Amino acid sequence: MQRREFITSLTLGGALVSLAPDQVWGSDQAYRPDKDTPQALSEFDQLTAQLLKQWCDGMLAHQIDAPEDPTRHGGLACPACPRIHGRCSDALYPFLHMAHTTGQQKYLDASIAVYDWAEHNVSRADGSWTNDVNPKSWRGTTIFGAIALAEALHYHGDVLDQSRRDAWTNRLDEAVGGYLWSDFKEIDFTNLNYGMTAVYGFHLFGDLLANPDYTRRSERFASRVKEFFTEPNHLLWGEGKPNDNRSGRGLLPVDLGYNVEESLNGVVLYAVDVGDQELLDLVSNALAGHLQFMLPDGAWDNSWGTRSQKWSYWGSRTSDGCQPAFALMADHNPAFGTAAIRNAQLMQRCTSNGLLHGGPHYVSHGIKPCMHHTFTHAKVMALMQDRMKSLPPVNTNTPLPREIASNVKHVPELDVWLAAKGPWRATVSAYDSIYKTKKSGLLQQPTGGSLSVLYHEKVGTLLASSMARYEMVEPLNMQPQPGDDFPLTTRVERRIDDDWFTNLYDLTADVRISETEQRCVFDIATTLQNEERDKPSDDSAAFQLRYTFDSDKTTISVTQSSEAKTEDATLVVPLISPSGESVRQVSNTCIEIDKPHGTVVLKSNVPLTLLAGLKKRVFNMVPGMESAPVAMKLSKNPSPIVCEISVRA
């Protein structure tokens, strides 16, 4: 057996890597998930296996080797955060999978070490594991750690010696029979992602631990699942405080990221395992309703969601990934398979040095990745590998709904509109369900008739959105905003002394749509407001926005509709553009941005200003993108500002 070799961690100390080339047993004895020979591997099989190995190796490179210090030893050092994330022990499952499938000792060592770190640092007497090392921190995430431990034991327990396997099994029973049993009494006791995940969790625990009480709780939770879907689009609601809070428009709290990356997984895994056909039919409709929001590049358009403060473009910062639900249900709708693959491909593009980054432009802007993204999503790739043979065909033969859309779709449960005309895809939001916590400030996602996403089939996303003001609602699970907090949402704004007035705070904007075969037009009556929902005192708050989508261009126009006019209102259009793309100011009313598959042209009928200059970019953590923001000043002239965006081959 070769000697152990150690490398240095980037942040918290030595990184534990042991016996990289060696195997615990012969390759002929290594575990093979149920699937066909390597020659017949599907694209999805290859992709999930590649991501799993990349991410496990990336986590290994950051595992701390400090046996003299149990507060650090075995934990995963986070390149972005000055702490070890309490949930990093979720990685024991993907590590144990890799140990079983490759026979390499380093992965077994890693799994054991990260489990031991959790037992030393976040394990509590009631059976829970806290989300952070603070013993008073949130314990609800125990459900995710318990499922990871149960999956590891179920599929790969044979890797462990009997005494360790028994110890891990007993520890799981302490978690389930202790904290989870006492606190997870109802499916909707808190944000719904916990209860929906527990539908599958208690079923898994009941099987693995041979405890019918756990199974019965799973069945009781499952019997209530149907209560939490909207009509007519079957969107899962419950991501609010309280989780059934109705907005001023009477709308329930819905978050796309948590729904597709966590909640729907729990329901699908349960329904598939027990063969509940009624629930399978329900969740098939729900997946189709949610899939309407996937962009052609595999991104989840959660620009409007109640918890969009954690939107990472490919999903949500601390949830698990959409692959289980969409892959397992691909026989109900083959577009679900397309979604599973496209999203995994997007995450692969957002992976660098073995770690999943929290958005497409982290690397170009020099932002370090949080470890949270990698250890949560690695679990999903391990599960997909372990269930590979039981999956229906998963491929990209069927286009996504937004690829073939050709009109405007109103989602009344959200007051969100999805527009499609020629190569353009757009999202317009007047959704007014606001997420609140006891400690956070205002968590304002795009509303007020915001054009929250603009996508072009050749050059990708041209406009995205962020919070009106970046707020770390979960300080230990989110990264601070680097530099100035500049919102990425297209908007009208005024700055009066220290006050900022914008349509992004308007919860009562009126949106009207007209459509022909050639174009669709959105007319939005909105008012500029500050964070307290106050309007400027000079009676100049009312504005009319118009978005016009033609096959060859998108046009944004702004008109002052108040009797009192102002000269200090500005239309801000933050064009998405990573560092390295060439930006040219062709004239004082035109700029061009060269992208890999075309040139974006923005023209205005008034002078425009590149707020960051030709070379620099503005970055926002939501959704992890850079922009070249363009500003156009309004005048008292009654004529509108007109801004045209087009793409030249």
Describe the structure.
By secondary structure, this protein is of the alpha+beta class. The chain has 14 helices and 23 strands. It has helices at residues 43-60, 92-102, 105-121, 142-156, 162-183, 192-209, 212-222, 256-274, 277-291, 323-328, 334-349, 362-365, 371-386, 401-404; strands at residues 5-8, 14-17, 351-352, 355-356, 408-411, 416-421, 424-429, 450-456, 460-463, 491-496, 499-502, 510-515, 519-527, 542-550, 554-560, 570-576, 583-587, 590-595, 598-604, 608-610, 618-620, 625-633, 641-648. The strands form five sheets. Strands 12-13-14-15-23-19-18-17 form an eight-stranded antiparallel sheet, with no helix packed on it. The radius of gyration is 25 Å and the shape is globular.
Keywords:
649 residues; 14 helices; globular; alpha+beta
Break the fold down into its secondary structure elements and pairings:
Layout: E1 5-8, E2 14-17, H1 43-60, H2 92-102, H3 105-121, H4 142-156, H5 162-183, H6 192-209, H7 212-222, H8 256-274, H9 277-291, H10 323-328, H11 334-349, E3 351-352, E4 355-356, H12 362-365, H13 371-386, H14 401-404, E5 408-411, E6 416-421, E7 424-429, E8 450-456, E9 460-463, E10 491-496, E11 499-502, E12 510-515, E13 519-527, E14 542-550, E15 554-560, E16 570-576, E17 583-587, E18 590-595, E19 598-604, E20 608-610, E21 618-620, E22 625-633, E23 641-648
Antiparallel strand pairs: 1-2, 3-4, 5-6, 6-7, 7-8, 8-9, 10-11, 10-16, 12-13, 13-14, 14-15, 15-23, 16-22, 17-18, 18-19, 19-23, 20-22, 21-22
Helix pairs in contact: 1-11, 1-13, 2-3, 2-4, 2-13, 4-5, 4-6, 6-7, 6-8, 8-9
